[in-house]
Amino acid sequence: MALMLNRRxxxxxxxxxxxxxxxxxxLEALPAEAKGWNWERGVxxxxxxxxxxxxxSKDGRVVAVKGDIQNPVNRGLxxxxxxxxxxxxxxxxxLTKPLLRKKDGRFDKQGDFEEVSWQEAFDVMKAQWSKAHxxxxxxxxxxxxxxxxxxxxxxxxxxxxxxxxxxxxLDPNARHCMASAVAAFMQTxxxxxxxxxxxxxxxxxxxxxxxxxxxxxxxxxxARVIDERLRRDSYRIxxxxxxxxxxxxxxxxxxxxxxxxxxxxxxxxxxxxxxxGAVDKDYVAKxxxxxxGPMDIGFGLREDSIKAYTAERDTQARQKTVVLTRxxxxxxxxxxxxxxxxxxxxxxxxxRHWLISFEEFQKGLEPYTLDFVAALAxxxxxESLEAFKAKLVQLADEYANPARKQVSxxxxxxxxxxxxxxxxxxxxxxxxLTGKQAxxxxxxxxxxxxxxxxxxxxxxxxxxxxxPADMSVDDPAHRKHSEEIxxxxxxxxxxxxxxxxxxxxRDLEDGKVKWLWVQVTNPFQSSANANHWIEAARKLDNFxxxxxxxxxxxxxxxxxILPSAxxxxxxxxxxxxxxxxxxxxxxxxxxxxARSDVWQMMEFSKRFTLAEVWGEQxxxxxxxxxxxxxxxxxxxxxxxxxxxxxxxxxYDVLFATPTAxxxxxxxxxxxxxxxxxxxxxxxxxxPEKALFEEYRLFGLxxxxxxxxFDVYFKRDISGLxxxxxxxxxxxxxxxxxxxxxxxxxxxxxxxxxxxxxxxxGDLNGPKAGDPVALPGKAKIFFRPWxxxxxxxxxxxxxxxxxxxxLEHWHSGSxxxxxxxxHAAVPEALLFLHAKDAETRGLKAGDLAWIESRRGKIQARVxxxxxxxxxxxxxxxxxxxxxxxxxxxxxxxxxxxxKETDFKKCAVRISKVV
Length: 913
Hints:
Blueprint: H1 2-20, E1 38-43, E2 52-58, E3 61-67, E4 99-103, E5 106-107, E6 112-115, H2 118-136, E7 141-145, H3 151-164, E8 170-172, H4 179-189, H5 200-203, E9 206-210, H6 214-217, H7 219-231, E10 236-241, H8 246-250, E11 253-256, H9 262-275, H10 281-287, E12 288-292, H11 313-317, E13 321-323, H12 326-331, E14 341-343, E15 354-356, H13 358-365, H14 370-377, H15 385-400, E16 406-410, H16 412-415, H17 420-433, E17 443-446, H18 453-461, E18 466-467, E19 471-472, H19 476-486, H20 501-510, E20 515-519, H21 523-526, H22 530-539, E21 543-548, H23 553-557, E22 560-563, E23 572-575, E24 580-584, H24 597-605, H25 610-613, E25 617-618, E26 631-632, H26 636-641, H27 650-655, H28 676-681, H29 687-695, E27 720-721, E28 757-758, E29 761-762, E30 765-766, E31 772-773, E32 778-781, E33 798-803, H30 819-824, E34 829-831, H31 834-839, E35 847-851, E36 856-862, E37 873-877, E38 905-911
Parallel strand pairs: 7-8, 7-20, 9-10, 9-16, 10-11, 12-32, 16-17, 20-21, 21-22, 33-37, 34-36
Antiparallel strand pairs: 1-2, 2-3, 4-5, 4-6, 4-22, 12-15, 13-14, 18-19, 23-24, 24-27, 25-26, 28-31, 29-30, 33-38, 35-36, 35-38
């Protein structure tokens, strides 16, 4: 009993740390009620958990926030960042006026920033847009968006870029955090987003975290996990990670594995489930099929080395040809004594896949024995092989037990992976094999990184290949449906997929994109291999606009900076990781001349006539039925037939439509709250409501149904999990007991329609024959383990992993302006094992060089703290502009999802002398 009490005390201490974090504030010091405070419901600005908060304002200023006890997500608690949501608005260097680089009174790319009016800012911005568009057409302009866009902002961006400019060069920073999850959902289920919900935490028997440091990255969900662990002695927690972290402290079993070997571990687990007879045969027979795809798909690197630094070229060469290691040969069932050179021939079509038999699936799993996988995957050199094996067996025992339910959580450890789509699919593989998917308390669950990476990036469709509600720009039926909702002429939308955010950076360096608008993100700090992109931004003939609230690294390389309104200074909405949509009212006015992003896009759209953007346009590489090669047709005659005129503006056609104007302002739902977008635009209609109500038309009847705008503001509603049908939210999708779209009597119905007609074959490829239709089925993929594009060697002898810390959000542009958070973690540290430090003559507090093939930076060494490194591995968070770790990281991506792998590259570390 004494041991259990000690454990409970320990876990409670960890829970408190996760909740209060680094603020150093006792509970009683948190914001309390005060006379004259006006409380309004809101949503936290950080992470994808979607915590509900209450926002207090007085005299036009946000004075406090507290957790919303009515919100079922966080139940009144907040983490350190959540409690800082008031302070992030009021940093001393808040941007309040447009700033343009000028020399001698005119725009000059080499000039200094000067304050300008919004009129002058938009004049120059439009002139530079026209210059790029005239030279390159729609592909020469681009917008980098965000999983931190509000739903309305993201939808406005989709309309402006895709419908207005006819460009698909719109992509969010969510490409860096959730794209692998999206690709795996679509390939496995034919529809995006999790089948489960947060209620699974209390209903499961075991939580398994895979590359998900929930204690720091999703602390309120971790609080619920720990709370349930304290209530039930039978509740178990496994933490699979490449280094010991805060989540390890609450885990019953910690498994430290070698970077990139998670795929091998999943295949071992699947092999055990099959060998033990633990497959839920009835579930699999009714609801699943088996599938495979090409193996040699490259690493999402550049196809040539023209722009590469000399030291990068050996890594980049692996994009074309790979010589298999002995272990890779074994993992493929090949003779390890023979050298196998593999051309990455499938790098151009990595998403292809086909059906295989259960027998072929078993054949693929056969090499993944306990002995092989343990020797391959053991990540801590100081742990015995037998101890590591025992942990893998415990994990297999857990998943193979039909009497216990498991929830597998993951975040960036899976998604930021050169095989990110594959490893997401492997999680579903195991849960589908055991019949533990789409059932209460059982399921593989991808946790979102940003507050609206689901609600905006995914659901709204701000990716370069997407349209709202899971639709794609390269699907003729989807384009037609979108054009009908938007009242566009046929063939307005561009069928060629645009550049994803990593490709946009490469396009900038190659001169293929010459005009870039960055909104709600800081890509020049957040993108890997950053030296390339910063040099391109400053030295080449291009024009970069950054809309932000504080000076950032991206604003420093920009040509024009536009001051933006922050979260409670505008109307908005987010969608969280459990499909919960939450809207909020504006509480206070933005400072100075800061404007909402919706206002910025609407106002800028007034400067474009249809004659300029809807005539014939060049699109290099466009090949689609009904289109002349390399060209978008003029749709001006068809536009006139719809009642538009050549001199009609995009504002008139896309935003201030007759339907939009029916949403009058003021609106009773406002309860007297302001709307700065309305006031600054000088209009009498409600843009945010009009945008939301039009956007929800895409999902109605398509399994993505949202409730009407006003419903989300009802006092008894703290968001709703879609699909919302007949006023009722859905907790477990695909389950006919809970989901109105699941066919009644089916039990489970994986009703997604994307990629549900594929050929059949074997592990080596598809065979001749007609594609097979798969209505209601999910795919169980076999995916092999492979080496990453870059591993430690004699020159660069350590693994490097990057990520976040609890106290800071992304690039720190907001949280580093909160005194308590900055004081707690004032700089990014280099986490090392003591023996690795000793061999390099380093001790705690020393400055060290961290160098890769791409660049070098300095960081201060720490040998303890929250992250405990195994020998051979280093960790540096990326929030600190002064410790610019993305100069070092590798811009390899998952070839299917195009998501960057920030979790592993090779570095060398030495003492600064």
